[in-house]
Structures are given as structure tokens and as C-alpha cells.
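Q: Given only this backbone (352 positions), what sequence would you predict?
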């Protein structure tokens, strides 16, 4: 079985920061210990912050027959047992938890918790696949990090291909003009392999799961998608659960929850797991230092404090910022200081 970390990495937004980044203010956290269930719906219900449509006046999710569990995305809903679901497209805004959802799905499969009818699961990120875009490959070469497979074994087995982060895809995905390919042993460009796999020309019995931000989701023709799901994020109970799992000190976790609940703008933003991670990092750090400290009361203050913490940790480790970490901190500074000029930010980062 392939390990969930073999070839899959979370996007910057969904994991908050890249591996080896500067948010490492506590001991490494195990996904199974801190994972909090996300609210997922079948169909495209729009953004979670449309409170009239998705959540009630208290910020709780309105449960209806369109809600779906993470491990059941390939199962038909009650009353639709006739439906065959081969390809699922999961949409969600940046930071809503799509990549973490994928990672937990794979981990549950590895741990024999769910989806044991799948013999193979291949978590692949478009970010990594971009590195192969100019090469001629057969499918087994792409899957080589997971082991050695014979084409006939792959064709007979129930398997799932996960393509995470369609918005990062640098391939043309030319479904209309790419040549038809039905033999998996034939070498072709990565674009030809992927379009034929998604179309069902290659391994028609396999399952395909694609995650994407909404703006890029249209790159997959609707006719090729059997189910669209939307990750909506956290409801109020999940927000509280996340902070209690993320912050090991129970008394401190309750202080953080009380503070978040008291400020409507922060409370609403915490439906995004990415923002919950930022809030937990900032508030835990500040409240541990002193009970009477000045804590952020709006988004700009929260982002500003987070940038300061990240920069302090980077300086403490005497670590040179990578291009990706520098870009992330610049983006956070833009959120914290929306009126600041882009050049002044970049100049400041160079000094850092």
C-alpha cells in the first residue's frame, strides 16, 4: 500500500505553511489527533459565508440531504442507488481543507478504516505532476513511487486516482484534441495520459477524484464528472473542536474559543481551517505570554501578529527564507496591511 505521504503534499493554503516552515511553534501534530471533520455537500452551494443559504443565524450548518461524508464520496446518496459514480470533482476556496481532506481519506484507507474495496489508492498532486509535463511516459512510470505494477493487474483491480490541486495544473488538459489512448503500456505525454484516464479510455473501471478551487474547476468538462462536491469548512461545533485539539492546554483553548466567539468577524472567518490555524498560532502564543496582553480583535491585527510571529521564528532559527515562504509572508502582509505598496513589502522581505 502506498503511504499517504509518498507523493502527496498539501497546498500552502490548506496546510497553512509549507513543510519545514516557520509556524513550527509546537511539537509536530499527528493528523489523526487534530483532524476535525469538514462539512461537505453534494453539488455547488456557493461560499460558506453566504449565511442565508448554508448556515443559520447562529453560524451552524443547516443539515440537509445534500451533506456527504468524506469517506462516502463514491457512494450514491439514499434514493439514488442506481447511480454509478466514477469521477468526483471536489471544489472549495483556498484554505478550506481540500488537501487535508484527501490526506485523511488516504490515511483511513491505509489504516483499514474505510474504502477497503479499493486495492490501490494513488494520491498525486498537480504541483508535482507539473514537473513531468515535458516527458513521454507510460502510466506505470508515473505510479512507480507506489511500487511496481503490471498493466493487467491495474486493469483488473479497483483503484482510485486522486489528483489534488487542479488550480495548480500547468498542463493544457486538451480533452477535445488529444489522441485517444486505451493501452496503458504506451508512452505518451502526461497531458494525453491524464485526459484519457479522466475520460475513461484508460482503466475505465478505475475511480478518479479531483480537487480544485472553484475558478479552475471548469477545466474538467461537466460531462466527465459524475459528482460535484463542495468543501464548506467548519460549523461552530467544529471550530471549537479544532481549537481544543490544536491547543493542548484545555484552559488556554477555552480562552481562545471565548475570544473568537466574542468577535463576529473572526468567528465567521474561522469556518476556514486555514484561518483557524492562524488564529490558534497567534492567540496561543499571546495568551501564554500574559493574561493581560493585547490580542487581535480584527483580521488585519490577526494577520499582522501572525507575520510577526513567523518572522521572529525565522530569525530565531537563523533560517534563510525560501522563495515560497517569502511569497507566503508577502501575501499575509498584504492581508494585514492592504494599503501597503507591493514594492515596499518585497524590499522589507529582502532585508528579512
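A: Predicted residues:
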Amino acid at each position: 500500500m502506498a503511504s499517504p505521504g509518498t507523493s502527496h503534499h498539501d497546498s500552502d493554503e490548506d496546510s497553512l505553511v509549507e513543510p519545514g516552515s516557520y509556524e513550527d511553534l509546537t511539537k509536530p501534530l499527528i493528523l489523526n489527533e487534530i483532524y476535525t471533520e469538514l462539512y461537505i455537500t453534494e453539488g455547488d452551494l456557493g461560499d460558506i459565508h453566504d449565511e442565508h443559504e448554508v448556515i443559520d443565524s447562529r453560524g451552524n450548518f443547516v443539515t440537509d440531504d445534500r451533506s456527504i461524508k468524506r469517506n462516502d464520496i463514491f457512494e450514491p446518496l439514499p434514493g439514488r442507488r442506481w447511480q454509478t459514480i466514477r469521477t468526483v470533482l471536489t471544489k472549495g476556496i483556498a484554505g478550506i481543507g481540500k488537501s487535508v481532506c484527501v490526506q485523511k481519506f488516504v490515511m483511513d484507507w491505509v489504516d483499514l478504516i474505510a474504502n477497503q474495496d479499493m486495492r490501490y489508492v494513488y494520491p498525486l498532486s498537480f504541483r508535482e505532476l507539473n514537473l513531468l509535463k515535458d516527458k513521454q511516459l507510460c502510466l506505470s512510470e508515473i505510479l512507480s513511487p507506489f511500487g511496481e505494477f503490471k498493466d493487467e493487474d491495474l486493469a483488473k483491480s479497483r483503484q482510485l486516482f486522486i489528483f489534488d490541486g487542479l488550480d495548480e495544473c500547468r498542463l493544457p488538459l486538451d480533452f477535445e484534441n488529444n489522441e485517444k489512448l486505451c493501452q496503458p503500456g504506451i508512452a505518451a505525454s502526461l497531458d494525453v495520459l491524464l485526459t484519457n484516464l479522466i475520460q475513461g479510455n484508460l482503466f475505465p473501471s478505475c475511480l478518479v477524484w479531483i480537487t480544485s478551487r472553484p475558478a479552475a474547476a471548469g477545466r474538467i468538462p461537466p460531462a466527465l464528472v459524475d459528482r460535484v462536491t463542495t468543501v464548506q469548512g467548519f460549523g461552530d461545533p467544529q471550530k471549537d473542536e479544532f481549537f481544543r485539539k490544536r491547543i493542548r492546554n484545555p484552559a488556554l483553548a477555552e480562552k481562545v474559543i471565548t475570544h473568537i466567539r466574542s468577535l463576529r468577524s473572526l468567528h465567521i472567518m474561522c469556518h476556514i481551517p486555514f484561518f483557524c490555524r492562524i488564529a490558534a498560532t497567534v492567540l496561543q502564543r499571546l495568551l501564554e505570554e500574559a493574561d493581560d496582553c493585547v490580542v487581535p480583535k480584527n483580521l488585519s491585527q490577526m494577520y499582522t501578529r501572525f507575520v510577526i510571529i513567523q518572522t521572529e521564528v525565522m530569525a530565531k532559527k537563523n533560517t534563510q527564507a525560501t522563495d515560497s515562504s517569502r511569497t507566503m509572508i508577502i501575501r499575509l502582509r498584504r492581508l494585514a496591511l492592504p494599503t501597503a505598496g507591493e514594492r515596499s513589502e518585497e524590499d522589507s522581505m529582502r532585508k528579512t
